Amino acid sequence: QQQQQQQPQQQPPLKIVTLQNGQRITDVECVIVAVGRSPNTESLNLQGAGIDLTEDGGHIVTNDFSETSAKGVHALGDVTGRVELTPVAIAAGRRLSDRLFGGESFQNATISYDNVPTVVFSHPPIGTIGLTEREAVERYGRENVQVYQSKFSNLYYGMWQVDHDDKPKTGMKLVCVGKDEERVVGLHCIGMGSDEMLQGFSVAIKMGATKADFDNCMAIHPTAAEEFVTMFPWGKSPQVSGAKHCTLMNQNPVTTTTNDKEDHPTIIADNSDGTVE
């Protein structure tokens, strides 16, 4: 019997994307449309109740306490247009409940909209927290920004019988600020497990961790996350810890000194009343 020759699989034609400003993007295989969301406030006549809206998109204007321009009216979540994430709305709702029903000790309870970790649940997932390299340069100047990055194939793909260049890759980046501190102000990752590893590293970023803090953390092998604590060059950052600074309840930094008579550290804490322990 005569074997039929297999016809080569035809690739879909490449697309050309034309933007409204006239710019053209050529040789595109797939177009992902992410249009975002608009607040559904137009029919509520909020201005009639004295509630201010943003001029650009109809979001409700609030302060850090979720208060609108109308006394006794609060708004939180996506409708405020601040950080449109479910956990942010939940946290803001909890703080509002604390202020309204938790007593005097919770009257100043708010959430921080800085350094909010977020994930794009794509394939592979993308995780990010803090400033991008461009944002850090714009804020602090190029001379004060140091970037560490790495690109590799996860060990998960080690047994795949394909060329290394054809294996899925993971990309990581640390954005640090300050020649005398190298505080990590941005952490970004794309690749397998980026969504899971970001939560733990976000705690370190919120605490003000430095590159030295990352270098001094022992790696867990074999994992992809260990790449963040072994980024070359390691040990070059000034040995200044940012994580010792507590950001909760306006507590003062805790410093460590060495006792001359004993080879044990002595913890010195500056209290708010001026006394020293």
Short synopsis of the structure:
Helix content is 15%, strand content 19%. It is globular. The chain has four helices and nine strands, in the order ββαββαβββααββ.
What report would you give on this structure?
- The N and C termini lie far apart (93 Å).
- The protein is built from 4 helices and 9 strands; from the N terminus they run E-E-H-E-E-H-E-E-E-H-H-E-E.
- The chain is globular.
- It has 277 residues and is of the alpha+beta class.
Indicate the topology.
Elements: E1 15-18, E2 24-28, H1 86-101, E3 118-120, E4 126-130, H2 133-140, E5 145-153, E6 169-177, E7 183-190, H3 194-206, H4 211-215, E8 254-258, E9 265-269
Antiparallel strand pairs: 1-2, 3-4, 4-7, 5-6, 6-7, 8-9
- Round the Cα radius of gyration to an integer and report it: 25 Å
Unreliable spans:
245-277
Q: How many H/I helices?
A: 4
Main β-sheet: number of strands, strand sense, barrel status?
Answer: 5 strands, antiparallel
Strand order of the largest sheet: 3-4-7-6-5
- Helix and strand sequence: EEHEEHEEEHHEE
Given the helix and strand composition, which structural class is it?
Answer: alpha+beta
Total beta-strand segments? 9
End-to-end Cα distance? 93 Å
Give the averaged pLDDT, no decimals: 85
% residues in beta strands = 15-25%
> Helix fraction?
10-25%
Q: Tell me, what's the shape?
A: globular
